[in-house]
Amino acid sequence: MRWTLRGNSSFGCHRRLGYATNAGVSRQHCNQRSGRPGLAGSNRLDNHQLTLGAFSSLIISDDCVGDTATDSPYLEITMSDAFYHRGLTIEVDLDFPRATIEGLKVPKRELSRLFRPRDSDRKKTERVLLHCKQLIDSSPAFHKREEARREHLKKLKEGVEEWNKWREENPQIRPLLYNSDLREKTIGKRLNRVNFANAVLINADLRGQNFRSASFHEANLGGAKLHGADLTAAVFCRADLYETEMPKAKLIRTNLQGTQLAKTDFSRARLDKCKVYGMSAWDLKFDRTTQKNLLIRYRSQASNRNKQDSIATELEVDDLQVAQFIYMLLNNQNLRTVINAATSSIVLILGRFSKKRKKVLDAMREELRSMKGSYVPILFDFKPSHKRDLSETIQLLANLSKLVIADLSDAKSIPQELSQIVPNLPSVPIQPILLARQKEYAMFEHWRRYPWVLPEFKYKNKAHLLQCLKQKVIQPAVTRREFASR
N or C end of the chain: which has fewer CB within 10 A? Predict the structure, then answer.
C-alpha cells in the first residue's frame, strides 16, 4: 500500500532549510538568523550562507522556480527518499523526477541527462545521488562548512561548560558536527547537559555517550548512531530522527514532543515515562524494545479562544505508534477530520494479482492518481496484519473507502472478498469491471440484487479501461454514493 502526501504540510516530512529556524539556548533566539560574528572568524558564515549560498547556482534557471506548495521557490514539501552526504540532505523523487539538496532543486534538465532508457529505478537513484554528491564536493562553500565543523568540534572538546557559554553568546550560529565522532573515549568528555539545540548531527557517532539532560531541540540527527547512549531527561522537541540508530539507548523521562521519527531503530532500547505529544512515527523498528508509561499531555482544542479555561488532559500508553491513534480517538474533532478525509478520497482496488492482471490494476491505480478529484487509490497487494485474517483486513479498508473497484477477471479470491463487503456496507458503492471476453464467476449473480453493486463495466483491454475509467467506472460509483447520502 502506498500513501502519497504532497502539499503544504510538514507531517512526517523533513525540515530541509536549516536557516528557517536557528534555536539557541532559549526560544527567544529562534528567529535570529545572522549578523553576529561567530567561531569561524574572518570566514564566518551564518547558516543561511552555508546552505543557500553553497548551491545558489543550482536554482538560477527557469525550470527550477515554482512547482512548490509554498511562496518560496526554494522550499519543497513532499514524500521522497532521503540520503545524507557530508552533513547535507539529498532527497530524490523519481515520480517527477526531482532531486533537492537541502531543499534546493537540482535543475530538471541536469537530471534528464543522467538517465538511460532501460535504467531501473534503483539505477536512476544511484545516478542522481552520485550527481548530487559531486555538486556538493565541488562547491567552494562546502569547504567553508568543513572549516566551521572543525572549529565547532574543537570548541566542544574544551568542555560542556565552555561550549554552552559559547552557544549562549552566539545564538545565531548553527553548530555543524555532522560525521563527527563524539564518543566519550574519542573526545574525552561526557556530554550531559550539553546544548545541541538546532545542531547538525547528521551521521554523527554518539554511541555510549552520556547525554543526561542534554538539549537536542530542533537538531538534525538523521542517520546518527546513539547505540547505548544515556538520554535520560534529554530534550528532543521538534528534532529530526530520520533513520537514527538507537539500539539499547536509555530514554527515561525523555522529551520527544514534536519529534519526527521515521525509520528510527529502537531495538532493545528502553522508553519509560517519555513525553510523546505531537510526534510523528513512521516505520519504526522495535525488537525487544521496552515501552511503558509514555505520556501524552495536551490541552483541549475546544477552548482555544480562552486558554485559561482550557482543560489539560494526560494519558499514558505503552507504544509510540499507538500514541498517535489514541490521541485521535480521544480528540473527536481530529478523528472526524481523519475519517472524513479518508472516506472522501480512498478508492479500494480488488482483483487478481497474477503478473498479467496486476499490470492492468497498476495502470488503473496510476490513472486514478493523475485524476483531478484527490483520489487515493489503494491496491490490495500487501500482506494483511498477522493479527487479522485477509477478510478482516479487506473489510477494514472498505469501511474507509469512498468506493470499491472489483476486477472480476480471472477471479480467485474476489468472491470471498465481496462476501465480506457487499452485505455489510450499503453506503460504499461497488463497481465491478470485467475483461470483455470473460464471464463473471457463477455466484456473482447473487450480488446484483444489492442496489449499491453497480452493473459491471466490460473493457476490451488495458487501453480501453483507462480511456473509459472516469466516465464508465468512477462517475457511476460517485453518483451512487451521492444518491445514497441524501
Answer: C
**Neighbour order of strands in the sheet with 376-379:** 376-379, 346-350, 403-407, 430-435, 457-459
pTM of the model: 0.64
What's the pLDDT at 6? 27
Grid coordinates in use for 143? 569547504
Comparing CA positions, the residue from 176, 21, 14, 175 lying closest to residue 89 is 14
DSSP string, 160-214: HHHHHHHHHH-TT---B-TT-B--HHHHS---TT-B-TT-B-TT-B-TT-B-TT-
- The string of pLDDT tens digits covering residues 164-211 is 999 999 999 999 999 999 999 999 999 999 999 999 999 999 999 999
Q: What is the CA radius of gyration of the chain?
A: 26
Q: How far, in Å, CA of 289 to CA of 230, rounded?
A: 15
Longest dimension (CA), the chain: 82
Average pLDDT, the chain: 79
Using CA of residue 385, residue 391, residue 395, residue 401, what is the dihedral sign?
positive
| Beta bridge mates, 431 | 405
What band does 438 get if pLDDT is binned at 50, 70 and 90? very high
Instruction: Report the alpha-carbon distance of residue 127 to residue 115 in Å, rounded.
Output: 8
Domains and CATH numbers, the chain: 18-141 (no CATH), 180-330 (2.160.20.80), 344-484 (3.40.50.450)
For 421-430, how does the pLDDT look when each residue is reduced to its tens digit (9 = 90+)? 999 899 899 9
93 DSSP β-pair partners? 98
